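Proteins fold reproducibly. Next comes an illustrative record:
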Amino acid sequence: MTGGPGPWMPTAPCTPGDCAAPHRTRASRTRAVLRLTAGTATVLAGVALSPLTVPAGRRARRALTRLWCRTVLRAFGVRVHVTGGPPSPGPQLVVANHISWLDIPLVAAVLPGRMVAKREVRHWPVLGPLAARGGTLFLDRDRLRSLPCLVRTMADALDAGFRVVVFPEGSTWCGRAQGRFRPAAFQAALDAGVPVQPVRIVYRPLGPAPYVGEDTLGASLWRIVTAGRLTAELRLLDPFPPGCHPDRRALARAAQDVVEVRPYDAQTAVDRDRPNHPCSSVHHRDSARPAAASSVRTPS
């Protein structure tokens, strides 16, 4: 990846050293290598076969996307648990907390739609072309003036009947705490008159999943495939119908309140058997204040 976020972008205090670590119960090296190989092969197969889905209808493409994303997660050793719902089939703005690059296939495995991602993702090898073919909406994080244009594009996609998925924190957090939901994306739902579907993401155990700060994709992948058992939980919360909040800021605050990780979630997700790991001290600062280490490598 080249460059970091502009000075107006949100940042998180999370760092790999404080927030991301292997779990004590680990898979064997042989199993880890098999998972890494299977996951990579599944991603490449999706890239190779994606042009064949172009003639299919929207419903068929969504079904194939769900199947492929679940297969990718399973191949990397991640089990998926979904609660709440059922999801609405119509256009909606899906908003979720952001912990890891795993969030993207996790949400797409249940609520496939047009993702909002930073511009740099378009140039990533393998995944970049796949994201572009999948209708990803790209944001130039270095140009604040590009944000209104993106919001209009999101509203147009919602008007056209698509589901749009965004991570409104604008940065990954470790899952023990989360950032403030930025209101800009919620304007698209107001303009299009569609519901907002809040989603809460929780990983158990939490240590291997976060992809924060100056973490690398290789290091993150290895933590995930070596985890003895990693479960990703996606909670579909009650949607906000159109008109239930007067403006984007009120809507963003309401969505953040329901998505926010509860003390029970954070406590049960923390790896209790890592007594030397400083689980929460990094979050003692004000979460709305920029920190030196920001989550600039998150693919969202």
User: Anything to note?
Assistant: The mean pLDDT is 81. The CA atoms of residues 14 and 212 lie 6 Å apart. The radius of gyration is 18 Å.
